[in-house]
């Protein structure tokens, strides 16, 4: 991750972007409360992000440069690992700005200074494509309010809008410790605890907007030589807007959610891409006979909703987990098709 090209600023209000034909305005909304996540007790084993010290230990020597390891330069608690997310979203932000001609703001539900930014007209009025990254741990009780759901309905009633929801994984939902252990051994990431349940806020949005999907598990994708993720299984006939044009794969991440479609009307939600699972590692989902999980879903416009609604995990937009031309094609398609 490289240094920023210009000086960084903080504690400023967003300057609204003017609409330009052919250049969609893209915004990112992170559903967490930064203080709630950063303030989690490191002595609690479950339902928290790792401390930066734990990240350094597990990934040694990747973060031993003073940029990351010097406590006078980088936070070593949970806040340090949260800041890694912001570093890793910069390539996506830069890429989208090059494609659209507009900068990409990142909003937090509650930021480092405690400012609360609900999803309302301040976020949505100058946005055409909204990404909601569901990275709030359930224990922090981030709940979507009725006014936010109504604001999103109004947003999606506008022509040519797009909402990309990214509820993260739900590891260890079972009350049975042996099942939690099986899930942990399956994904194999020492930084993810036996229970790590995400995305209360985005689940609220999905219920309010009538999105019949539930994020489940944290599944390890199958890989090939060099730990490269295997290609997606795609349904091109349903991809009438070419969201997956030039896309064969996303990036590798050890624990990805299965987006379980809970409705039985096939026209409601199109599952456009499924990811093969690493079958060498047992998991309750594979023991039930599954070999792939739902990775990218699309709900075409319908009824009063003029905009497109999609589901894709936030890790797809993070450079922490690598990237290639296929991934960048996907980014481009979402903001320019």
The fraction of residues assigned to DSSP E strands is 15-25%
Fraction of helical residues? 25-40%
Helix and strand pattern: EHHHHEHEHEEHEHEEEEEEHEEH
Largest sheet properties: 8 strands, mixed
**Average pLDDT metric:** 96
- Low-confidence stretches are none
Number of helices: 10
Total strands: the figure is: 14
Structural class of the helices, strands and pairings? Answer: alpha/beta
Q: Give me the Rg, rounded.
A: 19 Å
Structure keywords:
single chain, 337 residues, alpha/beta, eight-stranded mixed β-sheet
Explain what this protein looks like in three dimensions.
The structure is a single chain. With 337 residues, this protein is α/β, with parallel strands linked by helices. The chain is built from ten helices and 14 strands. Helix 4 (78-100) crosses helix 10. The protein is globular, with a radius of gyration of 19 Å.
List the helices and strands and how they pair.
Elements: E1 26-33, H1 34-38, H2 52-59, H3 66-69, H4 78-100, E2 106-110, H5 121-124, E3 129-134, H6 146-156, E4 162-167, E5 170-171, H7 177-187, E6 196-197, H8 200-209, E7 213-219, E8 223-224, E9 228-229, E10 233-234, E11 256-261, E12 270-276, H9 284-287, E13 292-299, E14 308-311, H10 325-336
Task: Give a short synopsis of this structure.
The protein has 337 residues and is an alpha/beta fold. It is built from ten helices and 14 strands. The protein has an eight-stranded mixed β-sheet with strand order 2-1-3-4-14-13-12-10. A two-stranded antiparallel ribbon has the order 5-6. The protein has a two-stranded antiparallel ribbon with strand order 7-11.
